[in-house]
Design brief:
It holds the Pfam family tRNA-synt_1b. It catalyses: tRNA(Tyr) + L-tyrosine + ATP = L-tyrosyl-tRNA(Tyr) + AMP + diphosphate + H(+). InterPro entries: aa-tRNA-synth_I_CS, aa-tRNA-synth_Ic, Rossmann-like_a/b/a_fold, S4_RNA-bd_sf, SYY-like_C, Tyr-tRNA-ligase, Tyr-tRNA-ligase_bac-type, Tyr-tRNA-ligase_bac_1. The chain is α/β, with parallel strands linked by helices and 429 residues long. The chain folds into three domains: 220 residues, Rossmann fold, CATH 3.40.50.620; 108 residues, Tyrosyl-Transfer RNA Synthetase; 82 residues, RNA-binding S4 domain (Structural Genomics Hypothetical 15.5 Kd Protein In mrcA-pckA Intergenic Region, Chain A), CATH 3.10.290.10. Helix content is 45%, strand content 14%. It is built from 21 helices and 15 strands. The longest helix has 16 residues.
Length: 429
């Protein structure tokens, strides 16, 4: 039996743990669960810490349960939120559950014949037939309002300056989540719930229900909420969440997110989001500190997690796309599909021109100024061309260059460049 608590402690994944948890886990195979919000048909990287906890739990010889909150997803967790969320219907929740299970299968072993094979459970399955009267009689009577009001997640919502209070629906959330723990304790012999540090109040409500109703002993463990060194929110980009679904966040953008992490964050993330051992990580950090400009830590982090979430082929394509931007020739860029090409040049100014303009004979002055406004005027365009500072598709051109269909990248793009760093993309439609 591997020591799970030791493993998550050195990785910086432990925030709070109930006394006696480590000893409990070292006695024999145990069962633990993490709740996952099913409000979308994909996980995002904010979910990954909980998923990694479950994987380390399984690697330590224990049985992980991934609980999709079909019932709690219909209510909305008040923890860490200032507003009540939109509620989802059952069909949407079921669709989301199946999509999430497919992503979890890349991390957790659901098919093993071993007793610690992972399982996916949905709390809607045991809550849907539970009447309101039965719930308040069988569960509600065991937890006092004073106990519920003392939880930070409740107090913050009730006392915040901009607070509109909280509905009874959200107030009862901790009871529903607590009952999940009680149900899994009874049905699956689950004795540990894990989650983010903002979940401590909800989790301990579950341990209290196990104690009061079953006279049993259950445990709680939370991990820190992941932050970025610069104070911005982890898991967000200008385009929103970084998703595990390739259709929502492409493997290229996924790879770039991790590649662009700061040195401080990379040292933290490589322990949390990879399965590299302690010795390997310490060597990587030492190598990185000797030559930080080579970004060895960020590269290894991005490689490990892109393969884990997507595939080796997706990683290779992402690296090729990243290299294409800096390549002195067009060979690599020509290999990119339209979506990846536009992602590589995301944020670069763009213009559209018609194929008719191109067929009529597009000269460089028009391409630089009149048709695109890349440069402010025709005279600016002439001056830059005379100074040999303009490139078309990474090749220097003069004023006499006429652009034709043969110059198109993937039959639709032209790449203009002034100097080394000023790019402009023309899309021909």
């Amino acid at each position: 039996m591997k020591n799970f608590i030791e493993e998550v402690t050195w990785r910086g994944m432990l925030h709070d743990v109930m006394p006696g948890t480590e000893e409990h886990l070292m006695e024999q195979m145990r069962v633990a669960y993490v709740g996952i919000d099913p409000t979308a048909d994909s996980l995002h990287i904010g979910h990954l810490v909980g998923v990694m906890l479950l994987k380390h739990f399984q690697l330590s010889g224990h049985k992980p349960l991934a609980l999709v909150g079909g019932a709690t997803g219909m209510i909305g967790d008040p923890s860490g939120k200032s507003n009540e969320r939109n509620l989802l219907d059952e069909a949407t929740l079921r669709h989301n559950q199946e999509a999430i299970k497919g992503q979890l299968a890349r991390f957790l072993d659901f098919t093993s014949a071993e007793p610690n094979a992972a399982e996916l459970v949905n709390n809607y399955d045991w809550m849907k037939e539970f009447s309101f009267l039965d719930f308040i009689r069988d569960v509600g009577k065991h937890i006092t309002v004073n106990y519920m009001m003392a939880k930070d997640s409740v107090k913050k919502r009730l006392t915040g300056e901009t607070s509109e209070g909280m509905s009874f629906t959200e107030f009862t959330y901790q009871l529903v989540q607590g009952y999940d723990f009680l149900h899994l304790y009874r049905a699956k012999k689950c004795t540990l719930q894990m989650g983010g540090s903002d979940q401590w109040g909800n989790i301990t409500t579950g341990t209290e229900l196990v104690r009061r109703i079953e006279s049993g002993k259950a445990y709680a463990l939370t991990c820190p909420l992941i932050t970025k060194a610069d104070g911005t929110k982890f898991g967000k980009s200008e385009g929103g969440n970084i998703w595990l679904d390739a259709e929502r966040t492409s493997p290229y953008k996924f790879y770039q997110y991790w590649l662009n992490t700061s040195d401080v964050d990379a040292q933290k993330y490589i322990k949390i989001f990879t399965f590299l051992d302690k010795e390997t990580i310490e060597k990587l950090i030492a190598v990185h500190n000797e030559a930080p400009h080579l970004r060895a830590l960020q590269k290894r982090l991005a490689e490990e997690i892109t393969v884990m979430v997507h595939s080796v082929a997706d990683l290779e394509n992402a690296i090729a796309a990243s290299n294409a931007f800096f390549s002195p020739s067009m060979d690599e860029l020509k290999k990119l599909d339209e979506k990846t090409f536009l992602e590589v040049f995301d944020g670069v100014p763009q213009a559209e021109i018609s194929m008719e303009d191109l067929n009529a004979g597009l000269d460089m002055i028009a391409a630089l100024a009149a048709k695109t406004n890349f440069l402010a005027s025709n005279s600016d365009a002439r001056r830059e061309l005379k100074q040999n500072s303009i490139s078309l598709n990474k090749e220097k051109v003069g004023e006499d260059k006429i652009i034709t269909k043969e110059d198109l990248i993937n039959n639709q793009f032209l790449l203009l460049q002034k100097g080394k760093k000023n790019y402009y993309v023309i899309k021909v439609k």
